[in-house]
Design brief:
alpha+beta, 10 helices, T-fold
Length: 394
């Protein structure tokens, strides 16, 4: 395949819903600065903490001329840092800086809406969100926004499709891993694993059948007081998909949205060319920052990996993705990337495939229409589904 020297964005391992609140801010910036900004040495949380107070709006260098409708369109790129504990980057076309900035503000507000709905750590005035549902477990059904019902229905669907490898009712186990990981990152010399006995005990409170959805009443009820929801495996992807649909509603027909590496293409570029997205190399010691580049038009790519969010115990790396079958991080791959038309589906599948051996995962991918995947093994070997097309990078 031909070498692609420039990338519109980067797909990397995904993060989880925020544990902190940030103020509204966004900026546009020059293309070359963004490539440096997303250099492989940087971590998302570090960037978030440093730049959350930044408010810069700048003109994107260069003009990109669109012949459609006989009008010139300029390409802009904006970023904000207060949603889903990660950096959001949007590249799009508009008639003016003012037009693009107005759309960026609308998109930021929309994504913040989903961020607050799917937050499992904080509640917000006037909103019953996932934390509200978890707090009401075993007590009473809670009336919620229909966007929560839709997300949980997707989670249940993917639970069945992946035979339990994606489990949104797995919060009690994930919260224990999160607690030990945070402590281990703060004090590496004292890092330890969660006790197996406690992991097994909590795994007994993850029954999907005890997630009760009433669509007519728009309520959610957790029938086990010790269970909790965690949608880190699908929440961000679902939100990105809805954001892409909203972008079209407000007149953005050509855009590329990245929320912490969950990348979604709204159409192609005005000239009809696809967007180019680099897939990050999980080996940070390599001189090659990207393993390949893919081309997207009305598609999404999501990558799950073990190289961004992890901690070490006795020299062994333990990532944030946990296999519901073992209650431990899987050891099959360093990253899995999924391309499909729906970002929520891509997010769910990338996590699920990370929890499966290659043959099982490949069989699942090949059974679903318009889904392709790429696996990178612990040895660096790349394997792909039959229709996964990529361009090698140097």
């Amino acid at each position: 395949m031909r070498r692609v020297p420039e990338r519109d964005l980067t797909a990397s391992g995904s993060g989880r819903i925020s544990e902190g609140k940030g103020r509204h801010s966004f900026r546009t910036e020059r293309w070359k600065d963004r490539i440096t900004y997303f250099g492989k040495k940087y971590k998302v949380k570090k960037i978030y903490r440093i730049l959350i107070f930044v408010l810069v709006v700048g003109f994107f260098c260069g003009l990109v001329v669109s012949q459609s409708c006989g009008q010139k369109m300029q390409q802009y790129q904006g970023q904000f840092f207060d949603c889903f504990d990660t950096v959001t980057t949007i590249t799009g076309y508009a008639r003016s800086q003012k037009d693009f900035s107005e759309k960026m503000e609308l998109l930021q507000n929309k994504l913040m809406y989903y961020h607050q709905l799917y937050d499992i750590y904080h509640t917000y005035d006037g909103i019953n969100n996932l934390k509200s549902i978890n707090d009401a477990a075993g007590k009473k059904p809670l009336k919620v926004d229909t966007e929560i019902i839709k997300l949980l229905k997707l989670g249940r669907e993917m639970y069945d499709k992946t035979e339990g490898k994606l489990q949104i009712t797995y919060g009690s186990v994930l919260s224990l891993w999160h607690e030990y990981r945070e402590k281990g990152m703060e004090q590496p010399q004292k890092a330890e694993l969660p006790p197996k006995k406690e992991l097994d005990r909590r795994a007994g409170h993850t029954d999907m059948e005890k997630l009760i959805l009433d669509e007519e009443a728009s309520t959610v009820y957790l029938a086990d007081k010790n269970m909790s929801l965690d949608v880190g495996s699908i929440g961000k992807g679902y939100a990105v998909q809805r954001l892409a649909e909203y972008a079209r509603e407000i007149g953005m027909e050509h855009a590329l949205i990245s929320v912490g590496g969950n990348v979604c293409a709204v159409g192609a570029k005005p000239e009809g060319e696809p967007w180019t997205v680099g897939v990050e190399n999980p080996d940070y010691d390599s001189s090659q920052p990207y393993v390949c580049a893919v081309e997207l038009a009305d598609q999404s790519i999501v990558t799950s990996g073990d190289y961004q969010r992890y901690y070490e115990v006795d020299g062994v790396r333990y990532c944030h993705i946990i296999d519901p079958e073992t209650n431990m991080p899987p050891e099959y791959f360093t990253s899995v990337s999924v391309i499909t038309k729906d970002s929520g589906m891509a997010d769910a599948l990338s996590t699920s495939l990370f929890n499966m051996d290659y043959d099982t995962g490949l069989s699942l991918v090949e059974s679903i229409t318009d889904v392709e995947a790429m696996w990178i093994g612990k040895d660096g070997k790349i394997r792909c589904s039959s229709g996964f097309k990529y361009n090698e990078t140097k």
